[in-house]
Structures are given as C-alpha cells and as structure tokens.
Amino acid sequence: MSDRTSVGNGKVLRKAGLLESYHIVRVGCDLDTGVLVSARYTHPSGRLDKETMYLALRVLVQNNRGLSVQVRDGLSSKPLWIGLDSVDLSRIVHFHEETSEHLQTIHESYLAKPFQYGTQDPLWRVAVLSDNNVLFMFHHAVGDGQSGLGFHVQLLFALNTLSQIQTKDTSPIVEIPPSLAFTLPVEKLMDLSVGFPVFWRVIRDTFVPVKFRKANRAWTGKKIPKLENKSFALHVRLFELSSEEAEILLRICRQNKSTFTAFFHTLGIVVMGDLIRMFNLGYKFITTDFAISLRRFTGKPIEAICDEASAWFMVQPIAKQPAKGSADDIQAVVDNFPWEDSASFASFMKNNLSKISQVTGCIKFLFRNFTGHYKGMLGKKRGTTFSLSNLGRFPDNNTNAAVTESGDSAWHMDSMFFSQCDVVLGGAMTLGVSTAESGSVGLAFSWSTNHGLDDDFAEKFVERYCAVIKAMIAQK
What is the pTM of this model? Predict the structure, then answer.
C-alpha cells in the first residue's frame, strides 16, 4: 500500500480518531476496501452527462471535507488525515456504457479495488452508468454506510438546484475552500464510556480463544485466511422490492410487532439454519452481527459524511425445522416464521441502543495496536456467520423540497443498493439494506469464495432468502 511521507501540498488536518484508525489500518493491511452505495436517477431529459455530474459533484466536494482528504501513516497506530487543496474529478469519476443490467458485476469490480494512501486522489470514486445509475465507492474511515445514503441525498438535492448556481464551472478541478471544516471523530462528539458488562463481553469476544467460548459451537463459514491469500474473490447479488412490495412487507412486520431490520435479521438465522441442515453440517448455532448508526447520539444529520457507527454480536440457535413440510419447502418457512423472535429482537434493539453504542468505545482497549489485532485474527475461526446493516428510510427533508420546486423537470431516484467488501474478517454472508427516494428497497448480498462461503451454499442462501420474502408478500 502506497503511503508517502507527504501528499502533494496538502496539510495535516488532525489525527485520525479511534474508529477511523480502526478502518484505516484495516484497509492498509489489505483486509478490506470500503463501502459502495449505488442509486439510479431518472429525469425527462435522459442521461447524466459529464457536465452535469461535474457541476453537481463540485457542490458536494466544496461542502464536505471528507471528500477531499487523504491518509498519511496508514499502517501506524496514529494515522493522520491530510486535507487536499484540490480534487481532480476526471481521475475518480468514470462514465460507462454499461447499464444497470451489469450492476452486480460493477459492484464487484469497484469493491475489489482498494484505495491507495499517499496519493493526490481522495478516498472515493464514482461510476456513472449509461442509464443514470451512480455508484459511490468510498473508504470506511471517510464514512459509514449511512454516509453513502447521505452522498446520494446531497447529490439529488444538487441536481435539482443546479439552476441556482451562478458560476457554471464544469472544469474537473475542484478547489477546496481553505475554511472548509473536517468533522470531528465520533469520540469527540459523544460519550463512549464503556460499562463493565459491555467491557467484559467485548474483551471476552476479542481475547478469549474461540474454543473456550460459546461461539465455538457456532458454524461461521470458512476460517479467516492467512495473510498471503489476498484475493478478495468477492461476489455480490442484488434483489429489489418495489415500493408497493416494500410497503406490504413493512405492514406485515408492523402487524407482528417487528421492523425491517429485525425481520431481515431473523430471516437470516432461519435460512442459515435450513441450509446447515440441508448440507448436513451438524451445527446448532450461528453468530450474527448488526450495525447501528451513532448519529442519534452525535446529532449528525442523515446527509452528513462521517464515520459514526457501532455493531452488536450475538450467538444464535438456529430455528427448529418446521413440523410440516419438507426442509426445502418455502411455504413451510413462511407459515412457521418465528415472528416472536423477530419482535423480541426489535425490542432488544430499541431498548439497548446506548449499550450497543459502547462497543465502539471498546476500540480504545486495543491501545491502537490495530495491525497486531488484525494479524492475530488471521488463520482463526471466523467471528460472524451473518452480518446485517440497514441504512434506513430515505429522509423526508429539503431534498424533497428541491424535487417539488423543480416540478416536472426534477431528478428522482428509483433504486438503491448498498454493498461492502468486508469479506476477509467480516461475516461469511453480509446483507446491506437500503431504501431509495421512490420507496423501493434494495438488498445486496456479498460473500467471498476464498474467505467465507462456497458458492453453492451462498447462492442457495440468496435464492432461498429472496424466495421466502416473495412468498410472504404474495400471500398478503
């Protein structure tokens, strides 16, 4: 990983925070690449051309310091954020003739390419497809998953207010205002003190050998590979619910005192359990983790680009096989879906947000030995079977006001997908959930043949997971 001692004529903005450093070193060790959120835009005039994109992105770059930063000392215990004086959009914004029919492949190819430290390019890139699908790929230290949603919220607003820009500068070179402030790290914005129950839980899960923990009885896919196996071999599968289908599913969840996140989490446990039986793996437990945003504590708006997230890890017994129906009977899964478990999980999330947020605070107990921490995981049992992250609903704010003001000539967004490349150390199967302005819901499944799951198992998981959702919606 390139990491020169200077980055052009940029200046040091500040030392990277704990969570930011955690993600910076992870990428520096070639164990992750970043996060990707794509959205398809619609407009009566047709395609998003280079001139329009440069105008809109100029607004975003000049208003978000996170879009003009680089990293120095990316493998050290104290990485530094470097502020770039300018950003050359022609180097990081690429226009493709492919359409959304190739979206899965493009998600895979963009996620497989890591960011380089010490260059004069910022830690993000954009792909624009010929049918106006815009892919925003970014470093996890620059932003969490919701930052990808925030990018598209800002881009939609910018597209619908371009007429208000007085100077139509379509040059790819964007000069950064010297006064543009960089967001503070999350530990400066909220209390990340750790209570003893959470402290002991995280220390146990981090330092106690797996063979002495309950998680040892869980099936978590393939072991984490050794360092020399650097090929990500990433696969992404996309599944979309129309706004009408999403509304039906949400109504079903609410009728059962559950939420989208709780439902998707519970369904993951059910489908994993079914496949563990089908493949005769002999396990009765899996492990899951799910992410939450810390913005409710820091006060950051949904459109902010920042790294403010936490996660919670759980050991889960797999659901019992339905009493009626064969093991591969989709309708039997629908009829016997454990809604009580889903409602219980929804209640746990609601009542334990403060406790879950403390997990991020536990990063300080690594004493900034991030490289040693990651190397210590290599060759060991994987921690998580199924990982879930839901970006939440598309915000109802000034973006919608801009759309309304633009009338029939407004840009809209009818599709969104959120994927990640945390396949080396992360969950064997990862699901990202996102909701577009239109109300459609995108599900992005990702896994690695080299690192997490065999393709046959993974493809069957995706197929079965989506089939249950479709059957559940159809019967209502």
Answer: 0.93
